[in-house]
Write the structure tokens for this entry.
Amino acid sequence: MRRTILVYGDSNTFGLKPLRFEGDIERFASYARWTSLLQVDLGSDFEVAVSGLCARTTIHDDTVEGNDRSGLRLLPTTMECHRPIDLLLIMLGTNDLKERFKLSPEDIAAGVEQLCLKARETGFLTTNLSCNLLIISPPVILETGVPADNFLGGAAKSLGLASAYADVAIRVGARFLNAADFIESDPLDGVHLSAAAHATLARKVSSVISPLLRKDPDTKEPENAAEART
């Protein structure tokens, strides 16, 4: 049976290249995005569905960037478009670091927790796997380049995301992956990923979820579902 994986994220899931100037909207070619590379690595037994929206936050409206940037608002509709979903990957929180939101790492993690709970409430996640949620903490940001003014103070806050997200993963029974352990934001703009980082992220996510996707659903999971921190 073909399994469906939904990746729910922001501009780094969309594949936006590091910004060279204000208004730059160049996107990596489909084959270079981490989600496409993940599909190749997993093979035809899996379908990687992608919902990446630039400026998407966890749960917050953004009157500057435009309507419907709240990840919480669009999550149920997005999941319904791709149901049934065997595994949901959530990689959000970078945009919550913008200075205008004035959020702490714990505030941002609380938004991720709301997303996880909403995902479970939809009924669109299957029970074919013993764990059907993966939380990915985004890489640490740098206050450089075009977006720097929007992210004042965000670099320091981003250092605290991984620990706060790991705690959420324990509470909601999700897997957890800290992207900051193996990739960095491109110094050109301090927020987006290079092509090399996309490739590395794809390989790492594949290595974490492949055993899970192929696991017998009757196999018992460890009590601490976040203990596979890598």
The chain has one domain: 3-213.
